[in-house]
Amino acid sequence: MPSSKYHLRNRLEQLRAAARREWLVVLDLDRTLFDTAQFYQDFLGAIAQTWGTETATVMMNVERTGEHLDPFEYLQREHNIGYDAVVQAFTEFTAKKYPNGANYLFDGASELIKYLSNRPRTHVLIITTGTEQSQAFKFSLCPELAHLKHEVISENKGKVLQEKFEAAGGITLGGRRFHRFALVDDKASALMPISAHRRRILIHILRPDAKFQEHTGRSDVREVPNLKQVIDILR
After folding, report:
1. Which residue of 6, 75, 127, 128 could cross-link 2, Cys pair, CB 3.0 to 4.6 Å?
2. What is the Cα–Cα distance from 231 to 150, expressed in whole angstroms?
3. How many Cβ atoms from other residues are within 10 Å of residue 204's Cβ?
4. Does domain 4-35+104-234 have CATH number 3.40.50.970?
5. What is the pLDDT of residues 105-129, one digit of tens each?
6. Is the pTM value of this prediction over 0.85?
């Protein structure tokens, strides 16, 4: 009869084989799942309504320069307006503007999350660039994302993912190491650092009215105008 060592070795091989078949789908938040432009429009509207148009205009001009701006930190630093006061102003503004509740997810986002949540051997991670405070507030506006793991980083996410693969041969999440992954992002600069590989799916969301009208120029990067087409690629 086969020894217990044989059974253990066989089981470990089965687990390794199963792990190699599992996918990690990495999603970007801002301008990919989350309508950041609409959010900032409402955020600035709330600021203007509560503290005057000058405060909102200065914030808007800083944001347009491309300088990274945490609106909560800015308002606290420059105007001594605290986080709770800002959240209250935003909540009151959006309650009047959207009687049925505000929705900052792009069309197709809910369907994509539902599909991925039910897809066999698939795990989802949202990686977003920014500050913990501002990104946490955006997540709080999207209950559909509450069950998903997410990370807030300050670096180019494509560079981070590529370095993890080169260093460890995969991405570790929740004790699992993933050898297959997909990245969905609206910025070509986030996709470019990742080298082409048959176990990687790179999807560039390029909407007609996108703030970043960049192209990767790579045949291995799938370029689509909306999230609904992402489901077709991942099927």
Report:
1. 6
2. 20
3. 23
4. no
5. 999 999 999 999 999 999 999 999 9
6. yes
